[in-house]
Specification:
Strand content: 5-15%
Radius of gyration: 22 Å
Number of domains: 4
Strand order of the largest sheet: 3-5-4-6-7
Shape: globular
Helix content: 40-55%
CATH topology of the largest domain: Rossmann fold
Oligomer: single chain
Number of helices: 25
Largest sheet: 5 strands, mixed
Number of strands: 13
CATH architecture of the largest domain: 3-Layer(aba) Sandwich
């Protein structure tokens, strides 16, 4: 008979003194010991690829965490740096032949290390307290905060100021945030509570709008629900829904994340729909894992909700995708968002959908499953490493000769679009649903006016 796994008790040191003090962390020991240190994960790890340091790869980080768990090492500043550099992209989980659940080791450690930090450090970090926790999770606050940037963009001054190096004079995280703002696109009104299927109804779904996704990519939401309607879906948009909670959870604000999760569970009528649809990978990964984060009297409700969550690409492929009738003369490449490919294991489905679009040429992207550097708020807190990954991603995209790069995550779209803008590359950056929606309506995808004569590359709108 198997003995129940016991939680590991870690010795987490004071980050200044290096003196260890015990703190319980609920990680089954077998989860840590499942890593056999074969090293197959290192080739897929973005930080190990960039830095070549064993401590900045999954195997090395697990070794560090195991040493802490066994009381052989306190969490010093050096250990903290190596753990903080991890993007939590989970590419190592895809590569691991032993099935190590790396994120389920790393995330509790990060929560635990946050607990031993002095409270005043968190409270006096203005960017964390104001921007990350009090603006990002709320769409209307994001829109208001973006107004000055949107005015500069519409006046044609944003790019000029960036080329002059003005943004480089700002504090690091603020600079990174401003340079990540996407180009203004007409957002349209808020989604209504109900949108009926076109033709015969094949499914009834609820749609998750999120926070950053709704504030900066509402046009993608509209494209997504139109695609769902074309595929015979009634679409409900529950009005009581909120941020998925990923921002708070990864910022070690666990109770606030739980509160947001429970509000979403209450808002969605999961018994009355076939699926809860998400069109951005980071939100989808968080929603699908509600049942694993907290164990209390609401766990069963969270698990029931999570079982209904489907990425839009995944859902359409399983439903039986109805291809658009209009042809499109475009060459595209597809970037695998980490939390879609590695956390949700949705890889073939987007490609299968795109392969059915008449006229579309889909070119494989080298290192498609390598992180672009966004990783939630990683590109704000680790700007240099994130920028190196973003440039590497753009170089691979340009090698394909594609007109369009497609990605199913808000952070990826922002990160890649910034690199495209800075390189002045003739490349449109779109969500797959934007392209499908344009094809259903017989329109050119946003950002492409027409192909140029000589080299087939597009002219940008």
């Amino acid at each position: 008979m198997k003995t129940p796994a016991q939680p590991v008790t870690t010795c987490l040191g004071d980050l200044g003194s290096g003196q260890a003090s015990p703190l319980p962390v609920s990680i089954p020991e077998e989860r840590i010991l499942s890593c056999v240190h074969c090293g197959l994960c290192t080739a897929t790890c973005p930080t190990y690829t960039l830095l070549g340091d064993e401590n900045d790869g999954p195997r090395g980080r697990i070794y560090l965490m195991r040493a802490v768990a066994q009381g052989r090492m306190p969490v010093t500043e050096s250990v903290q740096v190596h753990l903080d550099r991890c993007l939590d992209c989970r590419a190592c989980e895809t590569a691991c032949p032993s099935g190590v659940e790396y994120s389920r080791i790393l995330e509790p450690f990060r929560l635990a290390t946050a607990q031993v930090q002095p409270a005043w450090k968190r409270r006096t970090d203005w960017f964390r307290q104001l921007v990350l926790l009090r603006i990002f999770p709320y769409p209307e606050r994001i829109r208001r905060a973006l107004l000055p940037i949107r005015l500069l963009q519409k006046a044609g001054l944003y790019d000029a100021l960036e080329r002059m190096g003005l943004w480089d004079l700002l504090p690091g995280r603020l600079r990174a945030m401003i340079t990540l703002v996407n180009a203004p696109v007409p957002a349209g009104p808020p989604l209504p509570a109900f949108l009926p299927a076109n033709g015969r109804r094949r499914a009834r779904v609820a749609f998750f709008v999120g926070c950053v996704a709704d504030a900066m990519f509402r046009h993608v939401h509209w494209a997504t629900v139109r695609v769902l309607q074309e595929n015979g879906c009634d679409v409900l948009v529950p009005q009581g829904q909120v941020c998925c909670g990923a921002i708070h959870y990864h910022a070690a604000e666990e109770e606030d994340a739980r509160r947001l999760a429970d509000q979403n569970v209450r808002a969605f009528p999961v018994d009355d729909v076939d699926a809860v649809i998400v069109n951005h990978a980071g939100c989808g990964a968080m929603l699908k894992e509600y049942g694993r984060y907290w164990h209390d009297d609401r766990t069963a409700d969270r698990e029931k909700f999570a079982e209904k969550v489907r990425d839009i690409n995944e859902f359409l492929d399983r439903l039986g995708f109805i291809p658009p009738i209009h042809s499109i003369d475009v060459t595209a490449t597809y970037h695998d968002a980490c939390h879609l490919a590695h956390a949700q294991r949705v890889v073939a489905e987007p490609r299968h959908l795109l392969s059915q679009v008449p006229g579309l040429r889909l070119i494989p992207l080298p290192e498609s499953n390598m992180c672009c550097g966004s990783a939630g708020s990683y590109n704000l807190f680790h700007h240099d490493l994130a920028s190196r990954l973003g440039k590497r991603k753009l170089e691979n995209i340009l090698r394909t000769g594609a007109d369009v790069v497609l990605a199913s995550n808000a952070g990826c779209l922002l990160q890649i679009e910034r690199e495209v803008r800075r390189a002045r590359a003739p490349l449109a950056v779109l969500h797959p649903m934007e392209l499908l929606d344009a094809c259903y309506r017989g329109e050119k995808p946003r950002g492409i006016v027409a192909t140029s004569g000589g080299n087939g590359r597009p002219r940008r709108a």
